[in-house]
Amino acid sequence: MTDPRRPVLGVIGNDVPRQLVLAAGILPRRLHGSWTAPVDERAAALLGAADAVAARLLAQVRTEPLDGLVVCNDSQASLRVFYVLRATMPELPVHLLDLPRDDRPAARRFVRRQFEGLLAFCLRIGGAVPEPATLADAARAERAVGDARARLRERRRAQPARVRGAVALDALLDSARLDPATAVARLDAAVDDAPTTGIRVHVTGSGHPDADVYRVLEEGGAVVVSEDHDTGDAAWVGNAVDGDDVDAVLDGLVARHFARVATSPTALSADRADITADTALDAQVDIALALIRAADEAPLWDLADQRSALAAFGLRLAVVAPVRPGAELEAAREAVGLVHGEAVR
Questions:
Q1: What's the CATH fold of domain 8-127?
Q2: Cα(110)–Cα(145) distance, rounded to whole angstroms?
Q3: Domain segments of the chain as ranges
Q4: Bridge-partner residues for 72, per DSSP?
């Protein structure tokens, strides 16, 4: 349960270092949107040519009980959401977190200032200056979430899988919006009664705001055992660094930021392809599947490198694109046919 006295910080995107927010006494709650909720016509008109999940996110923000919101500049859709919210919801404190990916000294200084700005925003919405004890507590709590996510990953990748992909993704999404102790319990509870068999699938491409597409895939005889999109196992959740004071923790978080591979809008396609191939091999999949939403063009640029990287290990890549608003589950059913056809060649 969420402590009603604890401020809640909504998060859009995958760049917020949760340890810093937790150390300030604030609960980070990532907002994901939905595959199938109605698209608010006003939200869609305000956003312009952004994908449907962004429009659904904009509508979700209007109904969430938040003390503040951080929007990560990790895609053009998220950036549009930020500007629309600033113009249409002046009562909600909104902060933009803009983290460059090119690892240079100037970029490291900039990211450090961005994290300092995030902490200042947390103080503005009711947080407290982190002390050594709260920094250590936040690190332990966040690592516990990471350990639980790792245990779930092992259950998914077992032969046969001990948990369906939809069950796992539901838990992973929840772990990004619950307090750490509840998130650990939620993740550890994600277990199926019997081993799950089927065509083992790795999912890449656009992020999944909920597990509806996974459910359709698994009803069709697949089992999703891994993914590299940023709302699933690739979410920046469960990472923490040690430090005796805020300065040391900030330095560690800056280093950790540049050590990770970002998602398609801000990462090199070759790096994304390596992540896809490495994860698919580790999960012992039969096939990889890319589902890419309309107006989410960045993952399209990864496909050629991903296909080559997977082919080097005898793995195929099935692609469903574009996934259009209102046709998400139809696209999932199309993906079922492709997975069966490609996996048996």
A1: Rossmann fold (3.40.50)
A2: 28
A3: 8-127
A4: 97
